[in-house]
Amino acid sequence: MNAREFAFKVICDIETNKNYSNISINKHFKNIEIKNAERGFATELIYGVVENKYYIDYIINKLSKIKVKKMSTFVKTILRMGTYQILFLDSISDYAAVDESVKLAKKYDKRSSGFVNAILRNEIRNKETIKNIDEKDEVKALSIKYSYNPWMVQNWIEKFGLDFTKDLLEENSKKPNLYIRVNTTKTTRDELIEKLTKMGVECSKISFIEEAVEVKNLKNIENNELFNQGLFTIQDISSMIVGKTINPKENSLVLDVCSAPGGKTTHVATIMNNTGKVVARDIFNHKLKLIKSSVTRLGLNNVDVEEYDALKFDEKSVDKFDYVLTDVPCSGLGIVKRKPEIKFKEKEDLKELPAIQRKILDNASKYVKIGGTLVYSTCTIQDEENINVVKAFLKDNEGFKLDPIDSVEIDLEEQNSGVLKIYPNVHAMDGFFIAKLVRVR
């Protein structure tokens, strides 16, 4: 299968089943044969179309009497792919973009081939003028330009101001950097960098996290021999900061109540140098398999994986753990770069989250020993899911207090007060919120 048809199938899957791009791509790579040389172009097409969906639809709607929302999934996907190639990819000739799109239409919706051909050729003729966004309303114009649900843009302007929001939207439109975490139970950062460099991988150390490395040109990671030997794992800096915030001592007992896919769990287990015990819990069996797979690959023998719902109170865990991590389900609005589908969420999809987050935090707090540490984290930048949840918890739980985050050598606002607010456009990493609390009685 060629790159365009592969991309077509993945995008249709995302559109129909509301899957995340990375999950759908990985699923299809496993089930459909495609040459390695075609993978990069296919991935570029998939993410390009998804990340720019609203803008692409705006362009198509300028030229089509039939609006995108009334088109079949097959037709709008083919048109979106063709439009993306014409407007965004200088390396692809306009002729090839049209010709290959018409071929897809003939194969999957034959009656639409003439329609697809006409719209795309019209785009080529009007390429320069149709790029303009003819909207005077700032929120609407930004939501089209960067392809966001308008309520998100409005929300951020109200909270952060227009200039900050523009910077945030622009930063989120860039490709995410790739970071790896060295498995220090098996190797050192310098040794790993030396081996990766010999493979042609460009490596840069992250100064404030000694096990973090930024990498470039690292392809087909699942087939990389060093990865399969468990010498490193993929993890963003912000996520690593969570583990460094917990900073457990060796031989400690740690609970991660929402562990999947296991990055923070395995980091904590590694920080403890394979001593003590980390209990990693999650509710879904397929996610538990992911955790177990990572634990096995990294050679960690201090992790127990358990199926358990964090929303249910566990009497057996009361006052048991030295450290408890609550990395709760959230809106994900700090990791839009990595999961662009988040941009299209409805406001109503998020309204139940704070209550869920608070319930998980309440339960988790009961499992912490006196003198123990409770860490609350999310990958969102929304106060409703972050500081507001923590403040409400502290108001009702006088036995806990915020504790300075001094185990990470990074100067962030409110760090000394026990809170980290990380923004992609300010700190050049995934948006995260981290709060460190200690149980004092």
SS field, number of helical segments:
19
Structural class call reads: alpha/beta
Main beta sheet: 8 strands, mixed
- CA-based shape: globular
Instruction: Calculate Rg over CA atoms.
Output: 23 Å
Task: Summarize the amount of helix as a percent range.
Answer: 40-55%
- Please indicate the percent range of residues in DSSP E strands (runs of 2 or more): 5-15%
DSSP E strands, number: 12
Distance between the termini: 62 Å
Low-confidence runs: none
Overall average residue pLDDT = 95
Catalytic activity: cytidine(967) in 16S rRNA + S-adenosyl-L-methionine = 5-methylcytidine(967) in 16S rRNA + S-adenosyl-L-homocysteine + H(+)
Main location: cytoplasm
Family: Belongs to the class I-like SAM-binding methyltransferase superfamily. RsmB/NOP family.
EC number: 2.1.1.176
Task: Give a quick precis of the structure.
The protein has 441 residues and is an alpha/beta fold.
What are the key terms here?
alpha/beta; eight-stranded mixed sheet; four-stranded antiparallel sheet; 46% helix
Describe the SSE topology.
Elements (H helix, E strand, L loop, with lengths): L2 H15 L3 H11 L4 H16 L1 H11 L9 H16 L5 H15 L4 H13 L1 H4 L7 H8 L4 H11 L1 H11 L5 E5 L6 H10 L3 E4 L6 E5 L8 H4 L3 E3 L2 H10 L6 E4 L6 H9 L5 E6 L2 H14 L4 E5 L13 E7 L25 H13 L2 E11 L8 H10 L3 E3 L16 E4 L1 H4 L4 E8 L2
Parallel strand pairs: 5-6, 5-8, 6-7, 8-9
Antiparallel strand pairs: 1-3, 1-4, 2-3, 9-12, 10-12, 11-12
Helix pairs in contact: 1-2, 1-3, 1-5, 3-5, 4-5, 5-6, 5-7, 6-7, 9-10, 10-11, 14-15, 17-18
